[in-house]
Design a protein that fits this description.
7-stranded mixed sheet; 2 domains; hydrolase; 18 strands; alpha/beta; 9 helices
Length: 315
């Protein structure tokens, strides 16, 4: 099983259908679980997906429309009932704190102290590895990006050339230099992986900033472009716009979701066709309970063989 993957729990927008539950997305990330926008029914969808309350370390809400948050009471009470012991951080728009407290304490239950609250505000905010940017929607809404820091890949041939071996390698990584040899002389940058989560918004600068260069973009495609005027009025994206964002931002794998109830599985080819007008990379029209791996790391310069283009191995 991939240590970095998206578990799709629900893919509908305002109204669930026979085949699509309200929103819900769990990003597995090196032992951490980021639960985005748990809509109504998320607790049951987690059971179907083989996900437990102990897999949740973060609850990230983009905004407080019901299809993005009405699953919070069940998730919170399940965390309490299952006696989850690790910290769970809740990230949400500060302007909706009243709604958060109503959801957090929606019914009588034996409460838990493991959940800490981290309201975000302003145009850009961050909590640990989570970056939040304000979007354009009738109510205040934020998109999120999970970003791994830039790392360094050690180059064995450079280490050998400088006679650095054994414990000295660790010292070089910790301190940045050994015997006058710097870390930069024996390593190369290793880009950190990233995932962006963009829901309920019109096109705006923040959408492109969140998506810039990500390995995996999970983005709403509520409507086809034939409903572009409706999408703009209600603060949503079309599949065509999702493809434009992916192409402009250099996204590696694109996941479409948050489909209007007017569309069924038979309409998925139309969504992909619209995306293809701009984006020629990998497209996944999400369905409930599917799993989407985060693409493997891009090869660094030293990993590209002579005569081989540095291309995305996932394409």
């Amino acid at each position: 099983m991939s240590s970095r993957e998206l578990v799709v729990l629900g893919t509908s927008s305002a109204v669930p259908t026979r085949h699509r539950n309200h929103n819900g997305y769990l990003l597995r990330w090196d032992g951490q679980g980021f639960l985005f926008d748990p809509g109504e029914g998320t607790q049951r969808q987690m059971t179907y997906a083989g996900v437990s309350a102990n897999d949740v370390h973060w609850i990230c809400l983009t905004h407080f429309h019901g299809d993005h948050c009405l699953g919070v009471p069940g998730i919170v009470q399940r965390i309490a009932r299952d006696k989850v012991r690790h910290p769970v951080r809740a990230v949400f728009p500060a302007s909706g704190e009243t709604y958060w407290r109503r959801l957090r304490h929606a019914a009588a239950f034996a409460d838990t102290a493991v959940i800490s609250e981290h309201p975000v505000s302003g145009d850009v905010s961050s909590v640990g590895p989570v970056i939040a940017r304000r979007l354009s929607h009738p109510v205040e809404s934020y998109g999120y990006r999970v970003q791994e820091p830039l790392g360094r890949r050690m180059l064995p041939e450079k280490l050998a050339a400088h006679g650095i071996r054994g414990p000295e390698v660790g010292e070089l990584q910790r301190t940045g230099s050994v015997r006058g040899v710097t870390l930069a002389e024996c390593s190369e940058p290793k880009p950190g992986q990233s995932v962006a989560f963009v829901m309920d918004t019109r096109l705006c600068d923040s959408v492109f900033e969140l998506a810039n260069g990500v390995d995996l973009l999970v983005i709403e495609a509520t409507f086809l472009s034939s409903e572009a005027a409706l999408a703009k009025e209600y603060g949503h994206l079309t599949a065509l716009e999702a493809g434009l964002v992916a192409a402009d931002a250099g996204v590696r794998r694109l996941v479409l979701t948050h489909f209007s109830e007017r569309y069924g599985f038979d309409d998925e080819p139309a969504f992909v066709e619209e995306v293809r007008r701009h984006f020629d990379g990998e497209v996944v029209p999400a369905r409930d309970l599917t799993r989407v791996p985060v693409p493997k790391r891009r090869p660094t310069a030293s990993q590209v063989r002579p005569g081989q283009a540095s291309q995305d191995p996932a394409k």
